[in-house]
Amino acid sequence: MKQRFISSVQIILQLALTTVGLTGQSYPGKPQIIRCRSLEKETFSCWWKPGSDGGLPNNYTLFYSKDSEEKIYECPDYLTSGPNSCYFNKNHTNPWTTYIITVMATNEIGSNSSDPQHVDVTSIVQPDAPVNLSLETNTSANMSYLWAKWSPPPLADASFNSHIYHYELRLKPEEKKEWETVSVGMQTHYEVTSLQAGVKYIVQVRCMLDLGEWSEWSSERSIQIPKEQLPPEKPRIIKCRSPEKETFTCWWKPALDGGLSTNYTLLYSKEGEEKVYECPDYKTAGPNSCYFDKKHTSFWTIYNITVRATNEIGSNVSDPHYVDVTYIVQPDPPVNITLELKKSIKRKPYLVLTWSPPPLADVRSGWLTLEYELRLKPEEGEEWETIFVGQQTQYKMFSLNPGKRYIVQIHCKPDHHGLWSEWSPEMYIEIPTDFRVKDMVVWIIVGVLSSLICLIMSWIMIMKGYRMMAFILPPVPGPKIKGIDTHLLETGKSEELLSALGCHGFPPTSDCEELLIEYLEVEDSEDQQLMPSHDTPSKNTKIILKETDSDSGRGSCDSPSLIPVKCRESRGLPSTLQTQDVRAKEKKGGKGSWETPCMASEQKTLSCNSESIKSCTWLAAQLPSKQAAVFAYHSTVEAFKITLNTTNVNTSPVLVGNEENRQLLYPIAETVYDDVEKISEMEYSRTDQATVQVRQNQHNDKSSFLNTKLMDYVEVHKVRQDEEPTLLLKHKENSGKTKKCTVPGTSKEYTKVSTVMDHHILVLLPDQRTQNTPVSQEPAAETSQNPQQSQAEKNTSYSTTAPSDSRRDTSGSDYMDPSSFMPSFK
Amino acid sequence: MSTKGTSLKGLLLVALLVSHMLLTKEGVTSLPICPKGSVNCQLSLEELFDRAVKLSHYIHFLSSEMFDEFDELYAQGRGFIAKAVNSCHTASLTTPEDKEQAQKIHHEDLLNLILGVLRSWNDPLIHLASEVQRIKEAPETILWKAVEIEEQNKRLLEGMEKIVGRVHSGEVENDIYTPWDGLPSLQLADEDSRLFAFYNLLHCLRRDSHKIDNYLKVLKCRLIHDNNC
Question: What angle do CA B109, B114, B117 make, to 5 degrees?
Fold first, then answer.
């Protein structure tokens, strides 16, 4: 009923509040119950926080109900616990009941209620802090302690003071932050020991009932603990050291002085003496040390040393320290350390280290002997390399890495006993870069470059291998006759020439002829190109007739000078070159066979001048494998036919010049040798054709002339187009005067056929070079290759000649001996 | 027979020749009559001192190592050092105790002192070498060193007598000698006492050997190098 009433009232009030809200005033804000707390489990209080007042004075009402009944009560006591609180006294507090508490704020416009709070009294117990804390210090038997007293928290109702509290005490030195908490128990006083003398302490206490929470810490109390006056602690002897085996010093560590000034006394006794001495010198070695000078230093004696610390309160003595000075020598580090780089004979640098013993150490007397140890490392290195060097005061180091900076240190120690000195200050040395390294680099570069070049070279070689081969191994050059004295030739002194050639006998023997052949250089003429028969390639033959004779009558020159033979009788005898036949015969070999075929083939007697001893002809045969080089010479005057055959036979038969009726065949057994090769066949055929043509003209016109006369030479003086061809034949005496054959250069020789004009007109070129024209006869040269060809040519043409080699050396002028082929035209 | 004999002789001769050549090649020639560093076929004083110093150095090295080994094995925490004070049997010999004294004392007197100390150690070293083998689990190194020191001490004594004979103008005093009566203590039944006896003996040996070494080095520098070592 009442709740309904309240809710209906609230609704009404809220409605009213909304209307008032428009005018700037509103009903109160929602209050909030902050906490409820029981100090002693028998009463409790609740506090709330007021909400917004809504612009109007508010009234706060606390309602509560108990879980056991539905009745709503109002706060029994708003005053005891202060504003905005409600105090429930003992009568209203039931520890077995849960209270439901609500606070309602009310003003003129309306009211607002807090959220309901459930309160269990036993769970909200927290006493107040203890009070009346007082501190005292007390000193007994050199110990300081602190005496703290306090009272339990006061309660509103004095009758409740029978509660029992647990207490905690915490304390700290004033300057520190951390508290030291001590559980006190149920008593209200405590004694703190182990305090630092002369420090101000801060103390607090708090309490707690047997259930609930600790109270707040009580207010701080502080107290100054007075300074203590204690005797010093035990001092400790740290070490003793003798730097030079003559004096020594001992140091000790002072103890806590307890706030009082402390005096230290070093006492010692020596082995074998009962007496106790005091330190002779406290000052020299600094504070807390004792220096024993030479007078007070004995060796091989044990010192029993103690240090006594004394202050007002009392004194304390260190543990005894037994020292035999012999074993405590620790020298100073070595001095005067020098690092020097030297170079050995091999130019490799090495390091020389020198040093001196520490100045204090007297090593000269032998009383102290020092040993040294050095260590070094590259500047960036981590590990030291340590080298024990014994008693010497220098050391050489060889195996140092060039280009590095080294750190070197040395220390020393007495022999047998004692300690190593400190390391000497760091010394730096830079090892220069080794020269050989640079050299190595250079060599490496050189090596790489050269191998590159080699690679390129070999590449080129491979790419152009055959060219290189041709370059390295050029083709065999054509033969050239060298060493002939041209003047001799010019003057026609054959004997001299021959003698110059090393052939002394005259008439020339076969050897001489060989020589002659050897020294004949046969050259082709470019004019041969005119000839139709040149097409046939006879490359292999190269016949050079080299004659320096400026005389036009080259042939005449040759024949009389070299072969002073005149063949006269053969004029009437047509001499035909029947190479084939000859060849055929030749193949048979044999001397005897030579004659007959020669004769048969020629079908005529080859006659030479009786006076002249020699035949007019050489026949040079060539090797079968190589091309046959045939040199033929014709003495054209007799129309004597010289047939040159190229045969496959090794032995070259020489066509014999005939004497008048006798036909002498001079087979020259020519062993095949190089010179023969050089002398290619004298090519008549080419020139022969020209000759032939000339001949033809002559034949047609003046055949009688030709026939009737014996001609040594044919010299064409002029050939004119409009005129009849005129051949001036230079007749040579049959006497065989060789000198006559040389005609001084007054008249020109027309030895070269320039053009063949119409109407059988032959244009001859004057021989400008004054050289003998070697004439080669091709077909003879190429026996194996073109027998048929030559045969065919023979059939068709007048000459037996094979086409000339177009490649022939054109430097030499052609020599024409037209008369030689005369018979064939007949 | 005669031919056989001759051939045998020849063979022997050849063998001798060959062996001689081989030996010569190896550098093993017949010893020179006088040793190196000698004067008039006598070792020079310098050479004598060199050898003596090397020997004394070696002896002290051994005795020092032996003491350290023993100390580590048997004397840890027993406080022997405190008891060892003033108990060396050679303590009665007044020896120089610092550099000044060592330099002041006449070298002949110092040599005599050295001789005295060396002699004083003859007996105890012999006993030490035998008794040390009875120490429980004595390592081989200690045993070996005891024997070695005993031998080397005799050699050093010989050398020192030679030096003293060379240096001394007058007679060699043979009377400097301190008897040692410590043998019973080395044979004590009580292990602690026995070990202490050993400890003390080794400690004294270390000290005296160092003394001798140091004196000899001083003497060498004084007599041979005129105090400019």
Answer: 125
